[in-house]
Amino acid sequence: MTERVVLAYSGGLDTSVAIGWIAEETGADVIAVAVDVGQGGEDLDVIRKRAIACGAVEAEVADAKDEFAEEYCLPAIRANALYMDRYPLVSALSRPAIVKHLVAAARKHGADTVAHGCTGKGNDQVRFEAGISSLAPELRCIAPVRDYAMTRDKAIAFCEANSLPIATTKKSPYSIDQNVFGRAVETGFLEDIWNAPIEDVYEYTRNPATPREPDEVVISFHKGVPVAVDGQEVTVLEAIQLLNVRAGAQGIGRIDMVEDRLVGIKSREIYEAPGAIALITAHQELENVTVERELARYKRQVEQRWGELVYDGLWFSPLKRALDGFITEANEHVTGDIRMVMHGGRAVVNGRKSTESLYDFNLATYDTGDTFDQSLSKGFIEIFGMSSKIAAQRHSRAGHDLGLGQ
């Protein structure tokens, strides 16, 4: 029986050429698998037909937009996940979603190898292969661009020599990856980190410097899950899509950063994630109202580690699964409404309301009706600072400089 290879297929030049390239290099039949995570572009049926026309023995397409939103974007929202405190893991979240479909297709079709179109310099090769090995350790992974030196000029030549049904004349100056949670742009003139991005780079967001009226929105959550926008019930996917439009129109979610890649290099990335940033901003503020102080402090540490694990391709790791349990528990009381004004590239919260609120007006107020017993504070401070006071006395006895410049 001829060996079979499952290929993560996008419908673009590189993965279309990879179908025939893999067949020539390995002698295997190729099954193309395309997964729709809200990246837009061509119809899935068009992509499926192209895969067959390019030589795939079979092609599968999956509409995974709701799955991606519910099972991958939502955990990131509840985790307030921002890699290096800025990047909402746009590409990193989509890879494990695609991996699940690749593994399922490999088992369905009896394939022993999974192929992807990543280079040897990026994070995605790790995300695909670490994910596949976690779900199906028996599967082998190959990457034609990395493993068989399938450069772009070779891909174009192969495409033209074999009359493959894929356009080869237009070459974008950028490398772009996008899904419903956001869009990532790199390479081209952006690789010079002194160059400012031009407006042509952006697609999900409008120029925040353009004068326009502000947009006020109310986002409702139940246990950390966005369930309504301006009182209208929404699914997680609908919440992201709606806020992509509204927050995007205000220029929210533009990120220009030099990030630390897993492979050890620094890379300049342009991201735009209007819905993601709007939802995370609202969720963070609702947590400020509903999550107890010590839990909130510890959760911020967990959020950072959770984001690093996802960025590094360890979605299916034991630690990631354990942290998921903590994040679910921490969101138990994150229920309520957040009102914010979106304008000029910023989402600014100006109202909070929750039946689970820990904010007590009578304790917080400085006016008549204050129920906070200020007489207790003197003794509290004495005890709270006692250990530092005793240590300072010891340093003083020993003649150590206590940082007073004396």
Would you write up a description of this structure?
- With 406 residues, this protein is α/β, with parallel strands linked by helices.
- The protein has 3 domains: 4-65 and 89-171, HUPs (Rossmann fold, 3-Layer(aba) Sandwich); 176-291 and 333-353, Argininosuccinate synthetase, chain A, domain 2, CATH 3.90.1260; 361-397, Single alpha-helices involved in coiled-coils or other helix-helix interfaces (Up-down Bundle), CATH 1.20.5.470.
- It has helices at 13-26, 44-53, 65-78, 90-109, 124-135, 144-147, 152-161, 236-249, 274-290, 293-311, 318-330, 361-364, 377-384, 386-397, and strands at 4-8, 29-36, 58-63, 113-115, 140-142, 175-179, 182-186, 215-222, 225-229, 232-233, 254-260, 266-272, 336-343, 346-353.
- The model has no long low-confidence stretch (mean pLDDT 92).
